[in-house]
Design goal:
Strands 10, 13, 14, 15, 16 and 17 form a six-stranded antiparallel β-sheet that branches. The protein has a four-stranded mixed β-sheet with strand order 1-3-7-4. It has a three-stranded mixed β-sheet with strand order 9-11-12. The protein is 38% helix and 16% strand. It has 429 residues and is an alpha+beta fold. β5 and β6 form a beta hairpin. The protein contains twelve helices and 17 strands.
Length: 429
């Protein structure tokens, strides 16, 4: 057996599937060899039912696709996956069909000497040991896998690339997460029962995803197969969060996006809602915002050069459930010496008395739900006009030829949801 690579493993993604005839042909060869292996070793006493065979084929497809994807990402790259029954037998809308009790059998068959499709290193269970009067938990180790020699030769023979792999249409795109255990960790996924609301949210997102899947999108700095968007709701509440994640462009910086992405054979522009947080608060308060830059507190003793820090303080105060006692991370350097967070908040209260009661009320995630709903409506409206748009939280990328139309749609959807006309800023390559 080939020696496993020392390249750090990433988690197995059970949602990868074949996108082209070439990839399906490769998987067909793997399935044929596995059938021969089972027959030679008399592994099965009776033929699988149609349903069981379909499930088995799906597992093989997911494993092959993700192992190949990992090899394309990083030569010799490895994946890690749990083979625990506690994980594989658990029902979940998130885990995907490939993470089933049959997975260990599939992995072992694909790693057998006669097949050689995988290199496999079986994981170990965790355990508890007694250290003096205390108990110490020794963590377990998940199974790691990578492409074996016979899979590597087929990657070359079939000319497989990222474009030959897609994501499963059965993947859950409406995710609900619990509260964060701490600020630098994401909240765990929560199971939920579907309602009319969640079904409508999913239908809208699938409409957008199907459109993006067929769109003519190119990028010179990244592969473009990751177009599947998901909405993540927070704190166990579908009225909180809901931002769109998952697109390859969201991992890129603004300069790289504008310089490397092409939609429908032309360069893109980035259209951004300006002063989004405060504008949404004014909409909730049914009040009219003051003229000019809403982050300008110069009339109240805070210099305009501190604008970036002011934005951080305001955003932190909107999200916080109690009054801020210190500057949020990264804000302090924006202010002259001697200005405190209390000084900034006092200036904000004087500049924005109509919406200041919403500060320190922990409504940041509820505001984000409204923001994300607006972006979804923008994407659907542009889709209806035949315009492809790529979302980045409170902004979109569009073909530069559609800049004016996209800006009009953004203004109208914001006005329809909030009752105010927003400021739209544009960045060009």
């Amino acid at each position: 057996m080939l020696k496993l690579s020392t390249v750090p493993a990433r988690p197995f993604d059970p949602h990868k599937r074949a996108a082209t005839p070439a990839m399906r042909s490769l998987i067909g060869e793997v399935l044929s060899h596995l059938a021969g292996y089972e027959k030679f070793h008399h592994i099965r006493k009776r033929k699988r039912s149609d349903r069981a065979q379909q499930s088995y084929d799906t597992i093989v497809e997911a494993v092959v696709c993700d192992v190949v994807h990992r090899e394309l990402e990083q030569l010799g790259g490895t994946l890690h996956v749990s083979q625990s029954n506690q994980v594989l037998r658990k029902k979940s809308r998130y885990k995907g069909k490939a993470l089933s009790k049959v997975l260990p059998d599939v992995l072992n068959a694909m790693a057998a000497e006669e097949t050689g499709f995988l290199c496999l290193q079986t994981g170990k269970r965790g355990y508890t040991v007694q250290v003096g009067t205390a108990k110490e938990v020794v963590p377990g180790k998940q199974t790691t896998l990578r492409a074996g020699s016979k899979l590597l030769t087929r990657i070359q023979r079939f000319g497989i690339s990222f474009a030959d792999i897609r994501r499963s249409k059965a993947e859950e795109v409406i995710q609900l997460r619990d509260h964060k255990p701490r600020s630098d960790k994401v909240g765990p996924l929560i199971e939920y029962e579907d309602t009319e609301e969640t079904e409508a949210l999913r239908a809208s997102l699938w409409s957008i995803n199907n459109w993006l899947e067929q769109a003519d999108i190119e990028c010179t700095l990244a592969t473009t197969e990751d177009r599947r968007l998901k909405r993540i709701f927070n704190n166990g509440d579908f009225q909180q969060g809901g931002r769109l994640y998952g697109g390859f462009w969201q991992k890129m910086g603004s300069v790289d996006r504008l310089s490397s992405i092409v939609i429908d054979d032309d360069s893109v522009v980035e259209l951004d809602y300006g002063q989004m947080g405060l504008m949404l608060l004014y909409g909730l308060a049914e009040a009219t915002p003051p003229e000019g830059d809403l982050y300008d507190l110069s009339a109240y003793g805070i210099p305009t050069s501190s604008r970036s820090g002011i934005k951080k303080v305001i955003q932190a105060a909107i999200n916080s459930k109690k009054p801020l006692r210190r500057m949020p991370q990264g804000a302090r350097k924006s202010f002259p010496k001697g200005i405190t967070v209390g000084d900034v908040l006092k200036a904000v209260s004087q500049r924005h008395p109509e919406v200041y009661p919403y500060f320190n009320a922990g409504i940041g995630m509820k505001i984000m739900r409204l923001e994300s709903d607006i972006l979804v409506d923008v994407l659907l409206s542009l889709k209806a006009k035949g315009i492809t748009a790529l979302p980045i939280h409170d902004a979109i990328l569009v073909n530069a030829n559609y800049e004016t139309e996209a800006e009009e749609v953004m203004r109208e959807e914001f006005r329809r949801k909030v009752g105010l006309l927003p400021e739209i800023t544009t960045e060009h390559p």
